[in-house]
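Hi everyone,

Forwarding the result from last night's run.
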Amino acid sequence: MLSGEVAGERHQPSSPSAPTSAAAARDRVERLLEDHFRGAPQHRPPAVVLTDALLVTSELVTNAIRHGGGITGFTARVTAEGLVVTVRDRSPAAPTVRLRPDGQAFPVGGYGWPLVQRLATRIHIAPLREGKAIRVLLPLAPPAGEHRQARSAAETGEP
């Protein structure tokens, strides 16, 4: 379960109104992360952190629109643990992975929820009176191997 409000955590909520598209939600998350990293040495979020955050945001919002009856709420905030994104929709059904009868994933679609599960540190699905809320925690530091790889490529001038 994802922890709730913690005393002393850095709390920067996004705008309270629900975005009408995945692009609008991604814009909010990107601005939030840019603001958060403004004082950091690189003055911007690490590329892998930003990419993962935008991918997860896009998948959650798109699933809420396509399968959840529409978005009823959206928040994004930076805490001491990382980036917390919460998407609320009208459906009480939890996300599922669609499989073909032979056990293989469908060739079109069905990849979003497994990606969210792989990239998020924690996931919490809470039933609501009307629908559900999915809250995910994403790390704000790239995995050690990816950070070293990116740094050594930058130092050597290789792509």
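Residues 47-67 form the longest helix (21 residues).

Cheers,
N.
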